[in-house]
Amino acid sequence: MKSIILLSSAAFALAVASTSAFAHASFANKDAKAEGYVVATLQVPHGCDGRATTDVFVKLPEGFIAAKPKPKAGWKLEVIAGKYQKSYENHGSQLTEGPVEVRWTGGDLPDAFYDTFVIYGKVTGVAPGTKLPFAVTQLCGADAKVAWDEIPAAGVDAHSLKHPAPTLTIVAAGDDPHAGMVMAGNSHDHAAMMEATQPPADSSTANVGALKLSAGFVKAMLPGQPVGGGYVTIDNTGAADDKLVSVSSSDADKVEMHEMSMTNNIMKMRKVDGGLDVKAGGRLEMQPGGYHLMFMGVKKPFAAGEKVPVTLTFEKAGKVEMLLPVLAAGSK
């Protein structure tokens, strides 16, 4: 059955007015702390002259480093790497290159709907008061696009531009020990976008046959987000190869195995068909930026402190059940 919602003329006018209030592509969170991390949440409010959006390209500005985009169900994800204009310190290391553009492609966002595209990264070497512009290109099929890439001159109001680039206003970090993390909404609900979270020492473990499973965890999710990521490490102590052939969970419609990989300076995510091999005497370690579990059609967003039940089925060892803890932002 299909549901049809009819709006009165007054309600329709209100809906149009609300849409026009954020007609430009913009960030839901307007500010970012200097020398801190931010979950930059790009809002795409409409298509191209009524046509559905199929691709969104975001060029990352100098000073926004170590970027990690959020995958979206139904969209392909590409991360283009390149050289930074200068070297940046990050966790004791010097970064001279990294992601410079993120592309979500092959999607279908009708003009009548709104969606967000999320990139996590660090703001560094940018003075407070600076407006950091992110040039965005919105494609609607092969022959229609909108480029949000206009940067206002000093003293010019960005609202006077037809296609202003979305910006983050850099503000001083302040004295808050957590000030380096800026998010739209409740921080616990945004942990899915956190930098490569590591599992705590008491992560769930399990054994089945010659396989030892450990360090299992999933990431907390945004409200309304239908897709979540999970990880587990599998050690094969036996003399025969085995294979993880399927994963399921009562908390999601389905669970797929995915891989993130870098090809020609482009980070791509793909579904792994046929299962994941666990070689005899070897280890399969799922981690951000590599192999991972993708929970599709999550019934309720994973919240920090909860546990997610999963059943992993192996070709030879059989089935094993685990409870994966949901980690909050910054968990180690």
From TrEMBL:
List the keywords (alphabetical). Answer: Signal
Record Gene3D superfamilies: PCu(A)C copper chaperone, Uncharacterised protein YcnI-like PF07987, DUF1775
The YncI copper-binding domain is annotated at 24-170
Secretion signal: which residues?
A: 1-23
Q: Which InterPro entries match?
A: LpqE-like, Lxx211020-like, PCuAC_sf, UCP037139, YcnI-copper_dom, YcnI-like_sf
Q: Which CDD domains does UniProt cross-reference here?
A: YcnI_like
Check the record and name the PANTHER family matching this protein.
BLR7088 PROTEIN (PTHR36302), COPPER CHAPERONE PCU(A)C (PTHR36302:SF1)
This one is known as YncI copper-binding domain-containing protein
